[in-house]
Structures are given as C-alpha cells and as structure tokens.
Write a structure and sequence with these properties.
This protein is of the alpha/beta class. It is built from 23 helices and 27 strands.
Length: 709
C-alpha cells in the first residue's frame, strides 16, 4: 500500500500580502472572474476587471465568499461515530480503514451495487471525473448520480433531443448584450446570478414566471402563468407563431425536421384556451410572440422554473420548438440557451457523475464509449457496470432490499436539497454506512457514520466549465488547513486500500485533467485540445475543443452555426402534449406551492448560512403569500405559518406580496430543520430526465400556535 498524501501545515496556509491570485467564484455557473488577496490573516476577494462575464461585478454571495474559508465550525479532522452515538475526531488512517472495511463487508454480503455514490454539481471537472471512475472501477457499482440531476437534467435531455448536443449556452454570455429581445422562461437571474443582468440592460425582456420577481420587475412584458402550466403556455406561443405567420419557413425547411408534428400538438392551444388554463391574457401571449418575431437579435432562455417539473423535458422542448420555429438557434446574434445553475453544473454532468454517462458525455450503454473509456482507465470494458438509478431513485432506494446499503456523498446536502426531504432523511438514516465528504457540517453530515473534511474552492487547483461551455482554471490562494485533504486525496486513499494500483487514482489535479482529456477525446464534450498550459496563458476555450496536430484548436464558442449535431445536421422539433402537474390543488390542499432561491443564499445554504452578512439579509425560512390569501387563512405579516402538503409540514415567516398570484405561495429551499421547503415537495419524476417536481405541489396554510415566535 502506498503512503497516504501528506496534509499541509498551517505555516503553508499563506498568500503573499498584496499578491493577487486570479480564480473564479465559489458559487453559480456564471463563474465570475475574481482576484484573491491576502490582507493580514484574512483573504479578500475582488472582481476581475477584465473577465467578460461579470465585467468587474460580483453579487453579494461572491463578495462574501472568503468568509466560508474560516467558518468557526470548519471541519478540520475526520469524524467517526463512536459507541455512544456521537461523532468524535479520528485520524485519517483510522477513518479510511474503517470506511473501507465496512464497504468491503457490504459488498461481500450484498454485491457491488449495494454501495452508492452521490456527487455534486459544485465539484471541479477533475473531482467529478475521478468520482465517476472510482465508483465504476474501485467500487464496481452502477449506483452513482449527483445533485445536478435536480438542476439541469430536463434541459439536457431536451437539448440533446433537439440539437444532438447539450451545452447550457451554445454561445458566449456576452452575445446577450447585443440582443433586442430576450425571453426568460422560469429564470430569475436578478437574484440567482445578478452579474448576468449587466448583459440584459439593452434587450427588452419577456419574463415567464408565476411570481413578479426582481427580474420580472425589469421586464417589458411579464407573463404570469399558474404553476405547472408552462407547457400549455409554450404550446400556445407556438400556435400564435404559426397562425399569425411568424414562422421562418426557409430556416425550418433547410435546418430542421418535425415542424408538422409539433404544430399538430400546438393546434388545439389557441390563445383564449391557453388563457383559461394558465391565466396569461391572450393579448399578452400575442404580444410576446410579436416581440420575438419582429426583433433582429433574439434569444429564448429557460431556467429551473421550466425544467423542475415531472414534465420538465417536454416543457423545455416546447420552448425550444418555439425558438426553432422562429429560426433562432444556430444563427449569429440569436439562439436558445439554458441558464445552468450550479458552479460546475455543466462540467459536472459531462465527465461521469451521472448514472448513464461516461466522460466526454458518452453514454454508458454505448459499446464503443465503454471500450474507449476502459482503455484510458486500463480495465476491461466488460468490467464496467451499466447504467444505474437517477438521483431521486437512488436516494429513495437507500436501505431497501434491492437498494444500496452504503452511500458515499461528495459535495451535496440531500437532507435539505432533495425533494420529499423527510422521507430521504429517513432513507439515509437506515443505511449500514453513510460517509460524507464536506468542508463544513451540514444536515447530512449529522446523519453520517464517517465525515471526511475536504478542501474547498480557494484551497485547490482545478477546472470548471461555465454555463457557456467555457473551461476555466480555478487556482489555489491557500493550502488546506492542517487535517484537511482534497477530494482527490480521499479517493486515492480509499482506492488504494481497496486494492487499486496507486497510479490509477492520482492526486494531482493536472494529472487527472490530462487523463480526462484522453477519456473525453472524440466524445460530444471533447476536451482533448484543452490544457492547463493553454488556460494559464489566458486562452478562452469552449468545448468541443478536439486535439489537433498543432495543438491549437480554438475551441467552439458558438455552436450550430453551420449544422446541428445530429447526423443529418438538422435540429428536431419535438411533438409534446400538455398534461397537468402530478399534484394539483384540491379541497384539502387548495394552493400551489413553488420553491426557489433568494439573493442571499445558495443551494442548501450549508455555506451561505455561515456568512453573517448573508444571514442578516435572509435569516430564516419565509413564505410569500398574497395579502388577500393570507387574510383568508388568518395570517398576517411577520407571523409564523405552517405550510402542509401530503408529505409533511414546514414552518415559515409570512411575507405579504401583493404581486403574487392569489392561488400560489413561494418558499425558498435554503433553510434547515422545520423550515425545509422540500419537506413539502413530492416524488413525481420526469420520465425522461429523472427530474423531480420541485416547482409545484399542493398545500394548505394555517397559523402556527406560536404565531410571533
């Protein structure tokens, strides 16, 4: 057995005072350019003045990101659950030996698929790649997926079907600044990625959202459908495009297939019928289509509000159909795109964390893909497992007769972020072994048998891929604290103990990236021509970037200008039919509830809830409700409400919002304990993408006995 990697000393945890380390933000998929500087014992952040995406700006989360580096409860030692039931500090050798001995016991008794792996969309490309390899080679399990399934999977499925390729934005973010009109469907970038709004100053905005969000307040036109009816609205917009002669017929004839079938699905959705179903006035529907059709440069962008449904793939496809009918995708200055959410949501799904994929966006069921990747890994293709369960299905199966009995979690907090969260917490608690690698305690580490402290954002090298498909270098400003290891070091230590040769799981990020390049070569997400050297030299490289004889492929900032990625070069319009959400209001649960994010917090809040400035801005769970609805149920501003669905209840502070629909309440999902919004959300999944229905469930609201607590 090779020696485990050494951990850094406290004396090494320095950056020269005043020295600037260029890197990228810890949070969303914009990956804003930042500079880190040492100022006394602290690290300060400032925006990079020349990175084109944020153009010298940062959001509140980005400005305060260094505070997480020194969180008072930062994990600095492995923790093992002792005989008394408490988590107690342990040495690395003891912790890793314990993990491997218990994993081997589970595998011997139940087989390799009795061990699961759950990753995260914030892991670097190197870590996502190594995690997928570890699952399939060291563990031999098919049971791996990641929290990005809860974020981008519907858009990915729809994009692959339409274009033959899935990249969030198939054009640079900066193209948006020159647009005349941008339709934002289910996206609220003014709160979720504020620097993007710098590129949306010139365009007229059409915003589709049940709430009048900060983004909708800046819109020229706000379409406010009832939750769960976006698909009917998108079909209605296509109906108007056809009946009012806005189709780009030459584009449809030469660059697409499927308009006739798509039109047959849209034919019954005339504007007045759409108004009855969605609540969006017929004239506003017509205005939206005219604005898009008559503009010179125009984009259709979708976000989580469209995608996080049990019909999210079809709804995204319907908005893509609209964009194709108007001739937008693959045309300079116009297009369709999806606003990827998590920091490495794009790269995280390209290199092996998803249940059905291998590196390079290769499908695990493809014999040629298996042979290529197995060759890079030095194993036999037949030794690789097949496709496993999608994220919610994996979590739902934990501890059951045919599900995993052990789970390794890297970079995720499913106790807060998963739908039907109370049920998922019970499934996690039923495991024979739960191992969590994280940088701070979370609601999921509280259930773990072993907690492994890992390095974060500013403490390690690596790459991430932004929403525009641009591969970016993250650089270390500090070494990890004493007692903390990188995820790559953790995977190496586990793999070697399981009998893998040490060289198969390297700990150097550059070495892992070079292997990733070979594994992705020839795949849809081809990184073979990208290197640390090119990135460090300042080149802007968007995938696909294949290897060339001269090693200087320029990358592909704009996809589809000549052809789409299907064999015939044409995009596909997809016939989709509207259907109701899996759960609709009734006498017991008369209101729609929808969930989302707020400006101050990110994802499950495990990091941002440790930043005093952000906690001051959004200290607790709240529920937005129309004043008339609140009065009907005996609720007032600032009081505590109990919100209940068929699955459970959450407690939240009432905020009265006059612009909200009277049939809808909104809850952010960042908060723990009794304030978890995902105690309400259900288990209905999109049949294509595996996306849970986060954006709509049926609830009732009532005062809490402790109304003002």
């Amino acid at each position: 057995m090779s020696a485990d990697p050494a951990v850094g000393s406290e004396a090494d945890r320095t950056v020269g005072t005043g020295a600037a380390v260029p890197t990228h933000c810890a949070y969303c998929a914009l990956q804003c350019g930042t500079l880190l500087r040492r100022s006394g014992p602290a690290v300060e952040v400032e925006p990079s003045p020349d990175f084109p995406v944020n153009q010298g700006g940062l959001c509140q989360k980005g400005w305060t990101a260094p505070a997480v580096l020194t969180a008072p409860d930062r994990l600095l030692s492995p923790l093992v659950r002792g005989a008394g039931g408490a988590l107690v500090p342990a040495g690395w050798d003891d912790a890793l030996d314990l993990v491997v001995s218990r994993l081997e016991r589970v595998r011997e008794r139940y087989g390799p698929d009795a061990v699961g792996v759950f990753g995260g969309g914030g892991l670097t490309n190197e870590k996502a790649y190594a995690l997928g390899k570890f699952a399939r080679v060291a563990l031999g399990t098919s049971q791996i997926d990641y929290n990005g399934r809860f974020c981008m999977s519907s858009a990915a499925a729809a994009g692959n079907a339409a274009f033959g390729l899935d990249r969030g934005l198939p054009f640079p973010v900066t193209d948006l600044a020159d647009a005349d009109v941008v339709l934002l469907a289910g996206a609220n970038p003014a709160e979720t990625m504020p620097p993007l709004m710098r590129h949306l100053v010139h365009p007229e905005l059409i915003v589709v959202d049940p709430r009048r969000t900060r983004t909708a307040e800046r819109a020229a036109l706000h379409l406010q459908p009832a939750p769960g009816t976006d698909l009917a609205l998108a079909l209605g917009l296509l109906h108007i495009a056809v009946t009012e002669n806005h189709l780009d017929k030459e584009y449809l004839d030469t660059r697409t297939t499927g308009i006739d079938a798509a039109w047959r699905c849209a034919l019954p959705w005339w504007p007045e019928r759409v108004e009855q179903v969605t609540g969006v006035p017929a004239e506003d529907q017509r205005t939206a289509v005219r604005m898009l059709a008559e503009a010179g440069r125009r984009h259709v962008l979708t976000g989580r509000g469209v995608e996080q449904h049990s019909k999210g793939t079809d709804t995204t496809a319907a908005f893509i159909n609209l964009a194709l009918a108007l001739g937008l995708p693959g045309r300079p200055g116009s297009g369709y795109g999806c606003l990827t959410g998590q920091g490495n949501g794009q790269g995280g799904r390209e290199h092996g964390q998803k249940a059905d994929q291998l590196p390079g966006y290769r499908m695990i069921t493809d014999p040629a893909a298996r042979a290529h990747v197995a060759g890079v890994w030095g194993v036999e293709p037949d030794s690789l497992p097949g496709a496993g369960r999608s994220a919610y299905e994996l979590l739902d199966a934990l501890g059951t007769a045919d599900g995993p009995r052990a789970l390794l979690v890297f970079g995720s907090n499913p106790v807060v972020s998963a739908p039907n969260a109370g049920h998922i917490a019970r499934r996690l608690a039923s495991l024979d072994l739960l191992v969590v690698a994280d940088l701070v305690p979370s609601e999921t580490t509280e259930l773990a048998d072993v907690v492994l402290p890992v390095a974060q954002w500013a403490e390690e090298e690596g790459t991430v891929t932004s929403l525009e498909g641009r591969v970016l270098r993250r650089r270390a400003a500090l070494t990890p604290p004493v007692g903390v290891r990188t995820d790559l070091e953790v995977l190496h230590g586990l793999a070697v103990r399981m009998g893998q040769p040490a060289h198969r799981f390297p700990t150097e990020q550059r070495t892992v990236f070079d292997e990733l390049r070979r594994a992705s070569s020839g795949g849809r997400a081809d990184y073979a021509g990208i290197s640390y050297e090119r990135l460090d030299a300042g080149e802007a490289l968007h995938w696909p970037c294949p290897a060339t004889a001269g090693g200087n492929h320029p990358g592909t900032p704009r996809l589809f200008l000549d052809r789409f990625a299907h064999p015939d070069g044409r995009a596909r319009l997809t016939p989709v039919e509207h259907r109701d959400a899996a759960e609709t209001p009734d006498a017991h649960y008369p209101l729609h509830a929808t969930t989302g994010r707020v400006l101050a917090h990110y994802q499950s809040g495990a990091q941002t809830r440790r930043v005093p400035e952000l906690v001051a801005a959004a200290p607790e769970a709240h529920v937005e409700i129309h004043p008339g609805t609140a009065a009907h149920y005996g609720l007032g501003e600032g009081e505590l409400a109990r919100v209940t669905s068929a699955r459970g209840s959450t407690v939240a502070r009432v905020r009265l919002v006059r612009t909200l629909r009277t049939d809808t309440v909104f809850l952010p999902f960042h908060f723990p304990g009794a304030g978890r919004a995902n105690l309400l959300t259900g288990a209905a999944l999109d049949p294509v993408s595996g996306m849970p229905e986060f954006k709509v469930c049926a609830v009732r609201v009532e005062p809490c006995p402790e109304r003002r607590a």
